[in-house]
Amino acid sequence: MSADTAGAATLVVFDCFGTLVTERRPMPEPPEFTRWVVDTLAVDPRLAGEVVESVFTTLYEAVLDKSALQPATLGLVDKALRERGVARPQEDLHRALWFALGCADGDRYELCGPAAQAATRVAGAGRTVRLMSNCYLPGTLMRRLLRGLGAPEVFDRELFTADGGPKKPDARAFELIGSGPFQRRIMVGDSPDNDIAPARRLGWDTVQVDPRRPDFSELYALLGM
Q: How far is CA 107 from the centre of its chain?
């Protein structure tokens, strides 16, 4: 594709996990998740196991169906608890998810320096920069995680699927994050299936990133930077 000539009418959307943020260890398995639910919400281990099974099953079914809307994680946990006669304030649920999904671990998540630099450079050059993530952490906690990792605060808008709604590769997710009077849209991500192919089907330009060797020279070339 030719170098960018639209300037401020160009939107660049970055994927989060695998592009901006590296997961150095996989997401915790249900037993670890259950342990944190027990510890942070002070509930019986059997009840905690039932809650975790209910939440994981619902999310897994949504993930398998590419066109299904992703239910809000916080709502699933709250509903599963209430169905078993337990209610907890939202701040307690946030704390449980924060620990259960490994956000308190100092070595689980790491900011990708080249990606952070690319987002900063692109925003500094006057392009609109946004962030899209298939995730299980609610948006409030995602923003907290990103701040803690030192992610640049340059994103005009974020779409975090854990808040509920369409997820990648659903075209509706791209249409939501891509809304606005842009003449050009560019998707930057690591997944051929979730990031690149669906964006191309909508007529977006794309830049595929290898998490092992993150290189954003193609993005800079597209933007004439």
A: 18
What pLDDT is stored for residue 2 in this prediction? 47
CA distance 3 to 223: 5
CA distance 153 to 215: 21
Nearest to 15 by CA among 139, 141, 194: 194
Q: How much is the mean pLDDT over the chain? A: 94
Q: Which of 176, 165, 171, 111 is nearest to 138 (CA)?
A: 165
67, 168, 210, 223 from 1: Cα distances, Å? 30, 24, 20, 10
Sheet bearing 157-160, strands edge to edge: 157-160, 128-133, 10-15, 184-189, 205-208
Nearest to 163 by CA among 108, 99, 97: 97
In angstroms, the CA 222 to CA 65 distance is 33
Q: Note the pTM of the prediction, 2 decimals.
A: 0.93
Q: pLDDT tens across 21-74, in order?
A: 999 887 778 888 899 999 999 999 999 999 999 999 999 999 899 999 999 999
Question: Using omega within 30 degrees of 0 as the cis cutoff, is the peptide bond preceding 26 cis?
Answer: no
Which residue type sits at 180? G
Those residues of the chain that have pLDDT short of 70 are: 1-8
